[in-house]
Amino acid sequence: MKLHMKKLKFSTLLILALGLGMSCKDDFLKVAPNGSLSTQVMATTKGVQTLLISAYSMLDGTSSVVGGWEAATSNWVYGGICGGDAHKGTDEGDQPDINPIARYEATATNSYFNGKWSSLYEGISRANATLNLLATVVAADGGTGTIISAADAKSINAQARVLRGFYHFEAKKMFNNIPYIDEKAAATDPSKVKNDVDAWPMIEADLNAGYTDLPETMDAVGRINKWVAGALLAKAYMYESKFTAALPILTAIRTSGKNPLGTKFQLNAKFGDNFNAATKNSPEDVFSVQYSVNDGSGGWNGGWGEVLNFPYKSGESPAGCCGFYQPSSDLVNAFRTDASGLPILTVGANNVPDYNLPANAIKDDLGIESTAAFTPDAGNLDPRLDWTVGRRGIPYLDWGVMTGKDWTRKQIYGGPYSPKKQVYYKSQSGTYTDKSSWTEGYTANNYRMIRLADIILMEAEAEAQAGSLANALTLVNMIRTRAALPAGFVQNAAGTGPAANYVISNYVSFPDKATALKAIKMERRLELAMEGHRFFDLVRWGDAATVLNAYIAYESTKFAYYGGATFKTGKNEYFPIPQRQIDLIGKDILAQNSAGN
């Protein structure tokens, strides 16, 4: 959910008074600002909780002052497009700053980077403001418990620290060399903090504070509890290749973890339920960014960062705008399965995956008019494809059969496919969508930042790294077993059976570590496709240059858009620090990273 408030300045503690109006469930962030008050007036438990909510409100990357689709917490531009899951989509002239990002050619002056940086450090500023006000309240209380209880103080401190750790984590994986701003620096002059110190230890400390100090249950599903903090901590360890540190936390989350309201984590029976607004905050959701609509915010609480990512055809497809984030041919082909129902993991000359060979590539309607005949691919497919990608001839949720070219803005530029995971159902129009603004693309369909499937696959990866191949096999097959459930398949238009030839099976064995890791990496791509993780996974694995240059080579045979692009090792693993920030703070304080040099 969102709070509408003025920006908390990077170097200033701005105290905002907000009505709290808390409830159980997920609406504790649905708060509108009422004005500005002094520290003395705000120095109560309610006042500190108010500031804490303002820190939560930046989780979707957007406020009325900073952020937007360039700062979307789903990272669809950075994790999805840059990771080869999708093209920018639409046409050349719409949001042109994404074009050089997609080609790994963006410079430090690109407005998208400044938007992302500003949003993350806004969140950090709000978390630090919470911690500083909390310290004031605790000091005034003097241990009496008349102003704030020890339990409340401990919980607020831990939540604020996890939020601060999360925002720094996001900045770290984006820009690498970042200034870590704590509450002491925030209270003095944060603009003097250099970015020449590795932020990982401080990020770990913040996330570990939540894992240690927070309870398993909270008063709202949107709150961070022990297990959410643990999931973020384990993920940070995975990014640092600290697999032995991550493994016991991941196992504990899978076996004992609960959401903030006390429901034990478990995989949803149906894969598609992970992306339906009607089934949000399910037992599989470990950490979800809460979205809401029809709440008087004019859509600001409804997934503002993803509002561009709907099919383009007006009236007969969701939202009717704006044609961005179109799945790539390479991603779609990755869902091909072999005769036994397993993914095609082999790679040929020039690192070209064999699933992209003509004999394996999935049939598409590129260049075919919607009025012309077309028969969808009849070969073996992983059933998760048609919950992830909208493709011609296959039902698109309850919107009817996707008719191809007329669902795209410029097919020869963006490709023949449409995104699907964050899209609402036609029957949900007006209930899970907001009709008060220029598009119905503001929805209540939460972004699932960390699902249990993500946890299980990271656990499998950590087990494989430790040489526990049998454990890794069991974990990967948990994910594939769920995907293979026929009741969870997309059905044909008549509702009489599967929409395509879905053939999927479990792995029989992992003969060695290399085979296990190859399978796990592919499983992460298939399971988490279009969810904003791919680029960052490739970077942490050290696979980015190999995989993405092969991706560019393949996509450029279909789309001139990619011609001449190159991913450069040692440069493109991170994004340039925004020049605007360097100009504001000074290059002696905020030094550019390798991506911007």
SSE diagram, text form:
Layout: E1 16-18, E2 33-36, H1 39-42, H2 45-56, H3 76-81, E3 86-89, H4 98-102, H5 111-141, H6 150-175, H7 183-187, H8 200-213, H9 226-239, H10 243-256, E4 285-289, E5 324-327, H11 329-333, H12 385-388, E6 389-390, H13 411-414, E7 418-419, E8 447-451, H14 452-465, H15 469-483, H16 513-528, H17 534-541, H18 544-555, H19 579-585
Antiparallel strand pairs: 1-2, 3-5, 4-8, 6-7
**Estimated share of beta-strand residues:** under 5%
| Strand ordering within the main sheet | 1-2
Shape annotation:
globular
**Can you summarize the main beta sheet?**
2 strands, antiparallel
Q: What oligomerization state is this entry in?
A: single chain
What is the rounded Rg? 23 Å
Structural class, from secondary structure content?
Answer: mainly alpha
Low-confidence stretches: 1-37
Q: Total strand count, please?
A: 8
Q: So how many helices? A: 19
Topology as a string of helices (H) and strands (E): EEHHHEHHHHHHHEEHHEHEEHHHHHH
Distance between the termini: 38 Å
Average residue-wise pLDDT:
92
Tell me roughly what share of residues is in helical segments.
Answer: 25-40%
